[in-house]
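Incident log, structure service

09:12 report received: a user says their structure output differs between two submissions of the same chain.
09:20 pulled the input from the user's history:
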Amino acid sequence: MEKNSPTISTFVNQVRHFAHHHQLFTPRGKYIIALSGGADSVSLLLVLKHLESELGITLEAAHCNFHLRGDESLRDEQFCQQLCRRLHVPLHLVHFDTHAYADLHHVSIEMAARDLRYAYFEQLRRDIHAHDICVAHHRDDSVETLLLNLVRGTGLRGLRGIQPRNAHIIRPLLSHSRQQIEQYLDALGESYVTDSTNLHNDVKRNKIRLNVIPLLRELNPSVSQSIFETSLRVGEALKIFDDAIQHAIADVTTPLRGCTCLNQPVENCTTPQTQNSPLIISVPRLKQQPSPEYTLHEILSPRGFTSAQIEQIYTLLDTIPTGKIITSCTHELAFDRSTLILQPKTPTPLVRPMHIPETGTYVLSDNLKLKVETEECGDRYEPSRTADCASLDASDIKFPLTLRHTQPGDRFVPFGMTGTKLLSDYLTDRKKNIFEKRAQLVLTDAQQRILWLVGERTDNRFRITPHTQRALHLTITVAR
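09:34 re-ran on a clean worker, output below:
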């Protein structure tokens, strides 16, 4: 065994350089090696064991037995145990009933094994306080992934192939080919196990590996290296692209100006803003972007809209069919004058109708409550003037009250006016969008008269006057 052969030193130096360039390791960090027993993971364990002292890290290995290949699965487990024992590397073993998991979750065996493997690795990482999980993807895997993405149809990010880091998953061997890995193991005189299922082209990835890439090599013997280098350049270019697209998204979007719970200005809303928070997309500003359609795609695609839906939405921007709603699996998008309103799907109705038989505090939903109380009015009584409170003359109000969403045909007498007005017309005059209209609450009395358009305006018929002796005080708030 030539421990100092050029093959070994070249391989080690390349891993060292790649890890340093991509900042994969932290001194004094603990790292888990995903060890299957195959050539890739064995070489990963050996090269990191070689660099362990230099990098200032500690290693532990983890092996998953999926019980998919009979005696082969047991053979792989025993091989990993013997290897780790010889290298003095702690080994964590886990067994899975992969077929049962696949049946339970209605996924393929391949997807079941992947889900089980990565869920276990992440839980183990937390349990032993490890920094990251090292997996043995190599250059050929990245090339195969890129070609698969092209076959399936991909955006720009699919052209990056596999990345050196994805959250707590790192890939120190990504710059090496499978051939280099095998040459490294041969130079060390190290053995490994072979998964017989990889020898059959019965899945798409194996067809790419066994059929497509050999054909491409006839055109260019260095095709894998060329594709990999291109994917790295695409990855670097995407850093510039991602920065530009984030600026474009920030330019065309703003948080929805109202809170659907109280219809307050967004600066007064206590609901935290997240990626799932409602957004307004300005169509005029969107059209000013270098690529309006791609900017729209980057906003809508993460929210579940398909490419076909995004294309449909884009074609409608010139007409803006106000009131039209297009839904994804998680979100709704409404056309509203010169804007698109985007918000997560919410149950309908947002708040179930609630009957209020007497004064007290009522929990309306997970985040809303209504407090109903009476107050004696003196000469200096001041009615509430904030959006979340209302003060009404209690003399003509009959219990039980009902809190509900607006309904077609609802009318009231807006405070300060004498004639009735359709709620729908009032909300339109207030420039409420379709989602705000749908979320709007009203409070009615036993005679179905609207007392309060919640958060907006009281009914003039129940206004506080100098003759009012007792007031009904209403407060609606976000529940704590």
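09:41 both user submissions now match this output. Likely a transient worker issue. Closing.
09:42 reviewer note: The chain is about 40% helix and 20% strand. The chain has three domains: 6-238, 256-344, 354-478.
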